[in-house]
Each structure stands twice: as structure tokens, then as C-alpha cells.
Amino acid sequence: MGNKSILFLLFVISSLYATINAQSVETQRQYLSGTDKDNMVEWDFYISGGMKSEKWTKIGVPSCWELQGFGNYNYGHDKRFGKEVYSEYGLYKHQFRAPLEWKNKEIKLVFEGVMTDAEVKINGKLAGEIHQGAFYEFKYAITDLLNYGEENLLEVKVNKVSANESINHAERNADFWIFGGIFRPVYLQVLPKEHIERVAVDAKADGQINAEIFTTSKKATSVNLFLSDVNGTKIQDLKIDVISKAKGKWSVSTTADNVKTWNPEKPNLYTLSFEILNKKNEVLHRTNEKIGFRTVEVLEGDGIYVNGKRIKFKGVNRHSFYPSSGRTTSKSLSIAHIKMMKDMNMNAVRMSHYPPDVHFLNACDSLGLFVINEVCTWHSPHLETEVGEKIVKETVVRDVNHPSILLWANGNETGWNTELDDDYALWDIQNREVIHPWNIFNKTNTMHYPSYHIFAYDTYARDKIYFPTEFLHGLYDGGHGAGLDDYWKQMWNMPLSAGGFLWDFADEAVVRTDKNGILDTDGNHAADGIVGPYGEKEASYFTIKEVWSPIYIEDRVIKPSFNGVFRVENRYHYTNLNECKLTAKWVQFDGPKGTNAVKILSEHIVELPALEPSEKGTFKIDKPSNWQAADALYLNAKDLGGNEIFTWSYPVKTPKQINSRSFRDVGSKQIITKTKDGLFLVETNDMLYAFSTTSGLLKKVAKKGKEIPLSNGPIIFDHKDKIESIDIKTLDNKVEIITVFEMTDKSPNWASHKEFSSDMIKWTVYPNGLLDLHVEIKGKKIVKGFKGITFSFPEEEVEGMKWLGDGPYRVWRNRMKGTQFKVWENDFNNTVTGESGFVYPEFKGFYSSLYWVKVKGKSNNGFTLYCNSGNTFLRMLTPQQPKEDPNHRVSVDFPEGDISFVKNIPPIGTKFQLGDKMGPQGNSENYFGNDDDPITINLTFEF
User: In what residue span(s) does the Glycosyl hydrolases family 2 sugar binding domain sit (predicted)?
Assistant: First the structure.
């Protein structure tokens, strides 16, 4: 064997030895279950009652047994459990092999979560006391219970309902779906005999590290710490400045040099490694922790500071949930949810109402979200102190080192046990503040669901830091984005406001394996999401994205005098505005007969000013020589990671200017008119129009003999005036049908109108078949009803629509943001937001900034309508009302008719408030200027 071969062999042996040695001093993990909802391992299973009960079979673990077709489905607080459910339990069996080499190891059996009481046996012997509480990690030392070199039997009895009534009140009767089973992974920890039990770390923004190392090793004489990047490359050995030993715990202090701090905008993470060594300086055990350097301060009467920056929570509440697997989730799902939150420009999440999976917190650390972590309670009575102390310990011990966690929540909505408030500090080296959600407690006020006006003037608690841990409840299509613009203006500008947390992230519609797989939200109890059960994005998703954009651009209207200047505010906490990228595009759109292509006339990068967080300034965009030829301007902002912050759109041309491109020549064909059976008939260019001779309304439209079912319009909303005259004029190249109404409510200046002195409808038919409509409606300063006109068009005849305007989502008066001005195309659907269908965007509703719309018919040709009046809303059909809205707060009353053109639209409320309690934009009154200024609507129909 040559020297090179010998050297190579020595290298391989050395590497193998190093690998074996590293494994021998580090904790090994062996899963007995699968790792998540998509990777389960079959165990033997028996269920006592309900579906597939009283027989041994197989079940995938981890899982909620209902979603695997076992037992009974239950929703919490409003369904009293019957005797069968109270006694429902599952039996699990699983065999695993313990290798002989484990004889010199310490073995622990870890359950990440079991619903809810768990009795665990190894080879027929109890592993320890019965564990109570569904959402908490627990473990047993089973070294002495194993048969090494042989198969071992794990048995678990899981009671769906706890023997502890306070646990049942906290979890089993709460306002969410109740499941049973081993719903999170199960694994073995294989440790050296001399090992570290756990560590707790406090890593400050300045690099200072204080840590607690818990060990019962009698051979350990020293400890070593070193810092690596997240990929495991060592950065620096850490010199220990202070070390003290108490029974079972070593306390150490050190300082890391040149570290980057952790925050949601720049979530810099490191790996901190701990080693205990014997007197020969040999490593006995090594453990690694992901950490972030950051400092959290809650300053009374001031605010919540992270790394010296006072923060505003742009947050949401989130349950651990997936429709087909219940509370059993996955790392990929956690990442997907957090990416959606970040895409909405959120920076925080509240763990409602229980600790999440570990992988969710890991993803919050790595992707960047502030976290409020919470133990599970549900109103009064609170958790009993004895079991509550165990739960608090399990929560904090598992999660103490996550830099994303800023606060602990001791339960939810009066469910807190105040005897547990000081328990958090027993286990938390960082001594993070404890809050009571829905309570004024210590330095904070977290009262839920404030109305807009209460939020502004919060009486006796005005010295508290205010952040509602739940607000703008998103039942069905209400809340969330609706009202957020008004609320956020207050929150951003109130010194003692620390933002808030929307309720909640996703509709919890569970797959009912007992009902042919339907999605069930338990009526109106779980239909609260910004996204649907599978992550379908509702309209509020995009409203939140705009309102919570860290680049805040003042609302801007582009007119011929436009100077290119935009006022901007940096609403980041840690990022300079010039770290972001802004692109301006001047674009033109196709007409209704085009392919939806967008023509870019000009595109350039905008130089953003160097604004520190909270600073205001301006930026200026280039105006190319042909800028006034553009239909719209887009401003697209991206963060330093290349992710879209938001894209703002600004119309450049008026509707009349854009629509004039679509038709110029009115044609020269003959127009034939006649009167028959109370109808005035107009025929030209294969078109037939029929107008009522007594009302002037359009009664019938036909093209080449085939009827297009647009009729019975325009009806003027809330109109009681009698007809004064109907005048039919046959001119050289057009026919006019003019209906004038009596002036029953004359304003002082009514006589100043030169042509008409009251409401008026004017139809004009041209030789090419185009049909113009001009409507004048007398003005009124304050309007509570609808101002506009409506037509009939059967819903069953609508296949879809294509339009130029704001979209693709419908709007409410208090949810106007989040849309984009361009050509959109939606197919018909009958989705009831959060209740049925879950197809978004919803088709039916109000759409803003209408320029033109092409209505697609099913058994008819449909029609194209050009709206030549600015600031006009399209009403497309009438949405189906949700079934369960007892207070009529998230159901909106629509006007008569099917397709309407209106100048004002209604707000929508939340589960707890009507729209008019949610700020100025939710006011049901509308201001329309002077009484003597008519409102005009100009439309052109093309069939």
C-alpha cells in the first residue's frame, strides 16, 4: 500500500472516529411516530366509542383520531359533551427496538402533545404520572424500563376529556374544535449518561449572554461555550466571564463580539453550543441552541421596546389547524402560514389560545415574527393552581430560548389564574413580562374588540400600553380589512398604542369524515379567517397588506398638473427606507375586446430617500414625455429580500378619456322606430330596444332576434318623484327618449339649472346600435341610502365578467384599500365568505372605480358597458347572506335590482360591531355637496 493510500485510509478512519465521537456526545433523536401530518407511522389503535369503535385496528401517528375516521366530532363551548364523549378514550400500542449500545445511555420518551390525559406504559409498567393538558410537551425517563437488544412495547391510553375539570373548562369547552389523540410527534432522546438536561439563554442586543445549564452530572468539572452561524460554521469561542454552581444548575455569563441583532425585519440567528467537560477536559455532552441577540423592555407609561425601538404590533391570532388533520400540522404548513403573514406586512402573531408546534416557533425565529406565547384557558373558572404550575413550567421550559417570543400570556379572557403570574419567572431567565389578554393588568391594557371611539378615549387606563390582543373580529367577510385603515391611523399615532392582533388568521373548517368530507365551521363559530381553511386569500388579505405596508405613501390623485412628487413615511422599525426598491411603471390597457395585455410605456427605478424609521419625506418619479398617454401609474415596492411590499396603482386618464378609444364612429345605418303595446321600439344594426312609453325604462334588448335579458332600468334608488314628461326625439343620426320628473323637493337655486330642473333620464340610440344613458339625480348634502341606478339581469344568466377598474376583489365603504386598477376577469361563483364555496375572489358585490365591464352571459351574448362617469361603483348581483349572523352586523342589505351603478356603497361590520362603530369610513351617511348640484351618471351599452 502506498503512502497516499495509507494517508487516505487514516483520513477516513479519523473522520469516522470524529463522527462517532460527535454522535456519542450529542443528543440523538429517534422518532417512534411520524414527524407531521404528511408523515405518519401506523400504530395499533382502539377507540372506545363513535366511529370505528370497539375493535383493534391501525391509526397514523401523529394525528387527531376524528380526522382518521374514529370517535366523535365536537366543537367546544356551545356543545355540551354527552356521556359517550366524556368517556371516549383511545388505546395505542407500538413496538420499537432498543439497541444494545443504548445500555450505557440515558433514554427519555418525549411526547410533543397529546389530547388530553395520557397514561403511558413501557413493557407493561407506568412510565410516570398521567399527564394532563393537551398542548404541552412532556417526557419520561425510561432507561430502566427498556429491554436492550429486544423489542419493547409502548402503550398509551388517551382520554379525550380530562379527569381535571379545570383542564376541561380551559380546553374541552373552549371556542374551537375539540379533538382527541396523540396529535404531535413522539420520539426517544438518547443522551450520554453524563448529560445536560436543558439550557436557558438570555442573549442581549449588545452581545451579552447569560445562560443556565441544568445538569446532574457528577463528572462534569467545566463548561465550554462557542458561537456558530446557523449553518454550523464556528464563529468564535466564548470566554466565560462568570460561572456559578448551584444544585443541578450552572449559571454562566459571557459576551459575543460583533453580533447582528435579531428583529422581524432582519432575523439574524446564531447557534450557541454548550459543552460539559470532565477533569481531563474531555467533552461529556454537547447541546446546541438557536438564539437571536435582542433586548426586550416594557417601559411603563411608554411602550414595548425591542433593541431600543418602540414597536407597533401588526399582528394576528393563529390556531394550529389544518382542515384534513385538525391540530396536527407540519413544518411546511408553519412556514407557509408565516410567509402569508409576512406577505401581509405583519410583524407579530399571538399563539391563541395555546402553545404551538415547535416548528412554528422555529419558523417565527428564522423568518421574523414577534410572538406572544400563551397557555390555554377559556374564561372563568381558571386553571387549578397545581396543574397550572405544571403547564406554565412545561410551556416556558420548552420555549424559553426562542428570540421571537416577547411576552407570555397567562391564559385568555378572564381565564387567568393570578397565582400563576409569578411562576413564569421561575423558568424564564429573560424574565419576560406576563400579560392577561382582555384585561388591564400591570403595565398593559389588552382589552378586546374596542369600538373606534372607545379606542380613542380609553378613560381610566390611559396610562397603560394599549394593544388589543383581539380586534376587528373577521366573521365571514366582516372585520379584518374592514375598518383597519381607520383603526390603524389611531394606533400608529397614539403614543401609548402598541398596535394590536386581528382575530384571526384562518377559517377553521374541519373535514367531516362522518359527513362525506364536507367542510364544517360549526356555523358562525369558526368562520373568522383572513384566509380560508386551505389558505384561500380573502379580500381583507390585500387590504391588510396595503394598510400595514411599512412604506406608507400618502393617497395621491394624478391630474394633468401632476408634479411627480409623493409624500412618504418610513413605518419600519429597523430598516432605512433606501434599503427597499421602488419601481414606477406607466402603462396602457387593452379594451374589452383585447387580450388583457398591459403595455408598458415607461419603467424606471425610483430613488427612495434615506429615511430612518418613523421619518417622513418625499420622493419624485420621472415623468416621461408621453406620461399623459398612460392609463395608469404603478408603484411596486420590494423589501431588502426582494419580497413585494405592495403595488399601488393610480389612474391617469378619466373613464371618458379611456373609453373614447373604443368607439368613435356612430355609424350611418337607418334607425326604425314605432310604438306598440305601450312600448317604444327602436331598431338599428341588428339591435332592437324596447322602452316603456309610461316610465321611459328599458324593457327589452335583442340582437339578431336573440334576447339579452337586461331590463327594467334605470330605476333611480329611493326615488318617489312623479314623471312630468316623456319626450321621444327622432333626429338625423340618433333617437332620444327623455324622461323628466316633477320637482317635489325644490332647492332654493333649482331654477338656475338651464336645461333641466329635476331628475332626468335620457336614452340615446345611435345607428351602429350603441346605446347611451345619461341620468341626472338631484343632489343632497347628506345621503343615507344609495345614490345611483339599477337594472335587472337574471343571476342564472351570468357566466362571469371582465372589467377595467379596481379588483379583483369586491369592496365595502370601510374596506376600499388592497385593490389594484387594471383589467380583471372573474368567473361567476356563489361563495359565501367563510361559510361555503371558499372560492375567491367572490363574484357578487360592489366594485370600485368602474371604467368598463363586459358581462358574460350563459345562454345570451351578454353586453359591454362603458362607464363614462368617474367615481362610480359597479354592483354585480346580490351576495347570498351568511346563514348565521343573528345581529346582522356582517350581512349587508343590498338595493333592488341585479346590476347597478352607484355613487356610494355601505360599510360592513364585525361580529361585535356595526360598521358605524368602526370609524369614519364606516359611517352610513354620505356627503354629496350642494343640494342644487345634480349627480350625473353617463353609460354606454354595446351589445
Answer: 58-192
